[in-house]
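Researcher: Good morning. I'm working through a list of sequences from a screen, and I'd like to move beyond sequence-only analysis. For each chain I'm collecting a predicted structure so we can compare shapes side by side. This is the next one on the list. No need for commentary yet; just the structure.
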Amino acid sequence: MKKTLILFLVTIFILPYIIYSEEPVELTDLVRPSMFIVDYDKVYILEEATVYVYSLKDYKLIKKFGKAGEGPKEFKYDGNDGRPLSMSFFKGQLIVNSTNKMSFFNQNGNYIKENKVTVDRLLFPINGKFLGIGPTAGEKNKQFIGFTIYDNKFKSPKVIFLSDFEMNNPTKLVLPVTSFTYNPVYKNRIYINANSDDFKIGVFDHNGKKEFVIEKDYPKVKIPGNFRDEALEFFRTNPRFKNAYEYVKRVLKIRTYFPPIRDIQIVRDHIYVLTFKRKGDLWECIKFDLKGKEKRRTFIKLDAYKHFSFYPILYSVYNNNIYSLVEDEDDEVWKIYVTDFK
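Model: Good morning. Structure tokens for this chain:
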């Protein structure tokens, strides 16, 4: 009886959490990937101005396409400006969003068309309109990351959310920053983790009207005392930011607690929330339905934490699995880890 009770208690505490169990799979050809999507039985990886397409069955490279340039099958990209390209799926088409251009491809990476656009934003179609994410004017002519609705001609802008992250020579740089998903649109709704201190996800309709807020009580995760020193070392040694090191040193501020939400993904009628809670090199991921009812939790392996980055986190949810792309620095190769998350 005693052994049965112990087994029951162990089961109760272990069940809500699943740890990845499959052996990681190496992907060849990659050096510095910036986006990672698993869908349609394929793996899509964006690296600079090239998209790699792998088979999900055996992880073999199917094709790669794209390069920096002005042509129809090329992407307007300058690796020196720090602005990444983005890619997302909409109605079965892969959209690659580069500077003032949206390029459309089918699931096999075959070119369909391109649209020249007049706004420089990360753009997502929504019910005949577009959601744009990018620098947006706030008070005293300061620039913040904003979410803006445009009509189908990219006119009549309507700002629906302005973040607290100040861009363009900020008077203070507050870390960790509240980051935003690279695909916040799902079934004509927009999902924004709109608070740096509380667990809140604002849900907006296609016109930008707030419909409701998903709000949860979530224990605060305290930032360790060495975080500032680690952040400064990151800026001092990172090739992209080291020239701004002295400036960052003057304006850098560190929060007392991590933001409750590190990232969100909305996939197949569920919201996956990545938090700052950790178990070693594993990070907590919570699965909710679209109304915010929690379904399950797990911990997933992710690439090394970057104290500041323009790029999204390299993980993707597909068919009840969480796939994460992680660099093995010892072997100098990128590997895919798979977590079963039914």
